[in-house]
Structures are given as C-alpha cells and as structure tokens.
Amino acid sequence: MAGKRAVIPHYEFLRKLDSHKPEDIYLIYGEEGFLKERILHGLINRFLEPSAKEFDFVTLYGDESTGSDLVEQADSMPFIADKRLVVFRDFDLIKPSTLATVIQYLDNPSETTMLIVTATKMDGRSKTIKSFLANGPVIQCKTPYNAENLSRWIRDELRNKNIIIESPALMYLSSHIKLDYFTASNEMDKLLLYIGTEKKINLEQVRACIAVTNESNVFDLQNAIGTREIHKALSLIEKMDNFQEIGVMTITLLSRYFQLIWSIHLLRKRDIMDDEIINTHLNSAPRFFRPDYIRSANKYSLQETKKVLSLLFNCDKDLKSLNSDPKVIFTKLVCDICS
After folding, report:
1. Radius of gyration (C-alpha) of the chain in whole angstroms
2. Distance (Å, rounded) from C-alpha 71 to C-alpha 102?
3. Looking at 125, 140, 155, which one is the last position of a domain?
4. Rounded distance, CA 282 to CA 288, Å?
5. Which domain holds residue 161?
C-alpha cells in the first residue's frame, strides 16, 4: 500500500492528463458530471487500445453490481491488452454490505487491470475513500462557484485550442450563460462554429452568438437542413421571428457548415476514411459536432453541396438588397436546398 495522497482537483488532473502515467486504481467523484465524463473518457482514450475494447473493457454500475462483481472483473486476466480496463460507475449506489470486499481489492489490486471508479458523493472520512487515496489518484469534480470561476475555465479551454478570447467577451459570455461546465462547453462549440478559422473572439461575436442561441432556433435549423428534414426546417422557420436581426449571420453559419461538407467530399475523393477525417481533418469544427458533418455529407453529394453554396451566396445578396420579408426568403431557400 502506498502512502496516502491528497485529493486532486479536476483542473489539475486534466492539465496533466496527456503526460499522465497509468495507475491501477482511479476514483473520479463529485457533482460535476460533465467533467467526470471528460476525465473518464480521457483515461479510456489514452490507455485502452481500440483493438482491445471488445475483449478487455467492461463497465459495471453500482445499482446493478456488487463488490464481488467488481473484484471478479478486476481479477480477470486481459485477453489482448497488457492491462484490462474496468469502469465501475455510480459507486456510491453500491450495497454497503459489499464494501469490505472492495476495500480488500483496493489494498491489493491486480497489476493487469486498470480500475476506474466514478461516484457523485463520497464521505471523505470513510474507510473506503481512505483506501482509494492510499492506492491511486482521487479526482474531485466540483461545479463552478461563480462566473469568475467559469471564466477561468473557459479561457483555459480556448487557450488549449489556440484561441484567444478578449476580456470583455469572456466576462460577457460567463455572465450570460448557466453556471455549469456543460452549458459553457456547448456555448464554446457554437462560438467556434461561428468564428470559423479566426483565432480571436471579441465581444461583438459573443453577443451575436448568444443572441442566436437565446432568441432563435438557428442551430436546430442548421441540423434540420443538414439532414434534409424539410418539414422540420420549415416548422422552425415559422417559429422564428427575428430573421431581420439574425438573417445574414444565419447564412454565414450555414455557409461554413456546407464548406466543411464540401471539404469532406474532397477528402473522400482522396480515399481518406471518415474516421481519419473526423480525427485529423475537420480542425475548424468542434470535435463533438464532427460526426454531424459526416452525416450531412452522406445526405448531400458533391454537386448538391456546390449548388447549396451557390444558393446561400444568392440568399445573402437578397437579404442585403431586397425589401422582401426575410422569412419568405429563408422559406424559399430551405425548399431549394432540401428538395
């Protein structure tokens, strides 16, 4: 048994994850589910070979499994990989009567298994968490305390993507969204889609993007057009009353969307597989949204994509020069694109 360690804050562990060396036992706990999932999947992606996932990876759940189930899986030998990876979710829901079995394993873990345990609540005075602390990293995921706390996280996240956000823009963003990391992550993804290849975010861009998010269904409209769901797209347009303010910006977002679809078709012509396109080539799109572009590329051929970009160019000119109702212009646009 190693000496007792200190609980590691989530931000400290995430900062060092890329250079982290594997250990036999991990506990990830706290109320912040988004960060728990990020750390969990970060460990899985770093230490589990894709070829071993079918044979040497298993997930158990605390409301369905016992301590004996955990030990049985953790003591099993790996089939392909050097280490078997066992994830035990919702550990705080496990039957208390089976915890003694778990503690025995924690004090003498298998050298051929990596055990990753997640929980929402853990008693810091309990024998169980003391055993975790003595034998592996214990990472705590806390919700942001205030807008300043959230701002720091947003700035660090964008810096990791080589994006700079100006201070007024950062303050505006963190004070106008829900105080949690999941919401902040979604808003950042939308911002990155909006700014395209630019490397700096200013206040005007944040205000515009939050206005789109709060006052319209433009991202839902983009998804509906991307999947050629014409009835859904037309229904969304009917509900949107602020095309006068967001019309040109919506065209900008749709143009960037279909430019990426165009890029996918060109990459496919070079016999590049979709997995490689997602992982390597769509750098201007947030990773979470990249599969959506692949699905849209399956809905629109290269020639159809070229036609859509032309339609968007003409629509942009119409919005800026005609006195027609923007909703009428967008309705015609959707019909022309999805037909």
Report:
1. 24
2. 7
3. 140
4. 11
5. 144-215
